[in-house]
Every structure is written in structure tokens, then in C-alpha cells.
Amino acid sequence: MKRKRFSVEQIVAVLKQAELGMPVADLIRHVGISEQTFYRWS
């Protein structure tokens, strides 16, 4: 399976959604990333 690459803008958008109060579990499911990836980004 090919790895999905995210641009810096996409990563920033995901982190901003988390800052605004979206639950991490819902956010990572919607974006299609693992919890580990999310916390590595933040």
C-alpha cells in the first residue's frame, strides 16, 4: 500500500481543527491517519 503524503498546509489544517475542539478520535478517522501520526505532527 502506497504511503499517503500530506502537505504542510494539510497538516496545519488538521492541527487547527484539533485546536478548535474537534475530538482527536473523530479527526484522525476523518483524515485517515493513525493516532501516532497525529501526535507526531503536533
UniProtKB/TrEMBL annotation:
Highest taxon listed in the record's lineage: Bacteria
GO BP field: DNA transposition
GO MF terms, alphabetically ordered: DNA binding; transposase activity
UniProt protein name: Transposase
Organism expressing this protein natively: Pandoraea morbifera
Lineage, top ranks: Bacteria, Pseudomonadati, Pseudomonadota, Betaproteobacteria, Burkholderiales
